[in-house]
Amino acid sequence: MSGSIWSALASQTKQQGSLRQAFAEDPKRAQRFSVSACGLYLDYSKNLIDDTSWQILQDFAQQSSIKAKLSAMLAGDKVNNTEQRAVWHMLLRQKDVSNLSLDNQAIGAEINACREKMAALVEQLHNKNYLGYNNKVITDVIWIGIGGSLLGMEMAVEALTPYHSSPVQVHFVGNIDPVVVNDTLAKLNPDTTLVCIASKSFGTEETLQNALAIRQWFTDHGANAAAISHHFWAVTSNIAAAADFGIKASNTLPIWDWVGGRFSIWSAIGLPVAIIIGNANFQQLLAGAEAMDQHFIQSPFHSNMPVIMALLGIWYINGFGFKSQAILPYSHYLRLLPSYIQQLDMESNGKSVKTDGHNVSYATAPVIWGDAGTNGQHAYHQLLLQSDLVVPADFILAIKPEHQRHEQHQRLAANCFAQTQALMQGKTFTEAYQECLAQGQTPEQAASLAVHKVSAGNKPSNTLLLPTLSPYYLGSLIALYEHKIFCQGAMWQINSFDQWGVELGKQLSKPIFQALSGQHNQELDSSTDSLIRHFTNK
Ligand code: F6P
Asked: Which CATH superfamily hosts domain 94-277?
């Protein structure tokens, strides 16, 4: 992709007219700029595009390496080139994997064996057949993991609250802040608690520290090595480290190096979701994702939902220079979606070096943030509507609620649509002035207040409608964002599947911990040194 495309994009943004005018001139704009896939409906008409710019963006996608990279990914090529790994998480939602092989390994058989073991554990827990070492029925599972080994599962468990069908409760322990593990353990009894250490590497500090704390809790309650090995499970690709920790092979579920942590909800890392919603619903989650995979693989770019969303992102980041993207689910149950997408997007595409090792000369991943609507309306929507920052936003809403309070759900939807409308059309001085007069103000009062009520409008948003927030559509939604991020990575020519940046902080924390715990004091910069002195009171 030549460098000139980026400047061409930037110069094209200057030709863009106002959205209010575009809607006034074209009553069919919403039909022209909308797309359906796997039951999801995306209205992208409230974006700063017209036929010309949209064509330029489509051409850009055609010339980019999206297709080549997708083919390479599906073929099992090592598209994660810095780690020399294939990227095959998509295959984990494929129903029939029996014939799959990678590098002459019968991967399909391994996936099937893992699925069976996982499903059997879920059944045992649901049927109250899993007894602890004191012959008491397991009632609670502690899930220890962080990042990709936690965020998606916490989000999906919350999102699918109406589908909870388990006699067992799952408790997530991620942060190294010991209050999390303390608060969790305070509620539980080791006799009836199963622990699962979810760590692809089995080397993540937070996870290992929490696992050690929980193992100690078992010991403090009189559990011996056999009891601990009965109560502890692991999902990992580092079987040896799990065994060293005391986890037996029969309590270990595999994950493969070709599954990136942030793409791992489809693997045995998704176990807590399966435990909470049951095996059949978990299959639905996979099926919804697989449907989105097929849509992505087969659809031409002009009607390809992930490609469309990726292009809009590129347009804003590289054309307009908007550096931020809000994810605004109008669903309390989807309130953890923004932090899930945060890792998915920012850890994947927050890069400044291309796959070939050269520096990029353009911006990459945006800052992802957001929270559930309508809460955000009473917090940061003021900035979205009236500051000079432009933050493209994805509004996400389920059409049919999983409850009977239909009128209240309609009010939720009305707020969602009204926000996208307010961002798009804004409010002119004349409208604000007339509004003030209609409220009984004098012309002088109206003129002085109206300036404060003006909202520039022309702020872009997508509206994404799900038929319901079911396991199937949640699967499609997650896969949609995965593919969007993949397309953007391909267009930016970066490797979306490594995360070397996060290693630096991990490395530096080791000598600092040694200094804090009085073991060793090495030369440090004056700020870090003085922080350590304050912390240790020296
Ligand atoms: O934050 C870095 C990271 O490696 C993520 O990519 C990953 O999801 C997380 O840590 C947890 O890693 P693991 O599953 O190996 O413990």
From this structure: Glucose-6-phosphate isomerase like protein; domain 1 (3.40.50.10490)
279-298 and 66-74 helices, crossing angle to 10°: 140
Which of 340, 499, 500, 507 gets mutated to test ligand 1 (max ligand atoms within 8 A of its CB)?
Answer: 499
Active site amino acids: 347, 378, 506
**Which CATH number does 3-74+288-400+460-492 carry?**
3.40.50.10490
Residue 26 structure tokens = 């074209």
Which residue has the least CA distance to atom 8 on ligand 1? 148
d(CA 324, CA 493): 20
Per-residue pLDDT of the chain (538 residues; tens, 9 = 90+): 555 788 888 888 988 899 999 999 999 999 999 999 999 999 999 999 999 999 999 999 999 999 999 999 999 999 999 999 999 999 999 999 999 998 889 999 999 999 999 999 999 999 999 999 999 999 999 999 999 999 999 999 999 999 999 999 999 999 999 999 999 999 999 999 999 999 999 999 999 999 999 999 999 999 999 999 999 999 999 999 999 999 999 999 999 999 999 999 999 999 999 999 999 999 999 999 999 999 999 999 999 999 999 999 999 999 999 999 999 999 999 999 999 999 999 999 999 999 999 999 999 999 999 999 999 999 999 999 999 999 999 999 999 999 999 999 999 999 999 999 999 999 999 999 999 999 999 999 999 999 999 999 999 999 999 999 999 999 999 999 999 999 999 999 999 999 999 999 999 999 999 999 988 777 889 999 999 999 998 7
Query: What ranges do the domains of the chain cover?
Result: 3-74+288-400+460-492, 94-277, 502-536
Q: How many CB atoms lie within 10 A of CB 182?
A: 12
SS (H, E, C) 423-437: HHHCECHHHHHHHHH
pTM listed for this prediction: 0.97
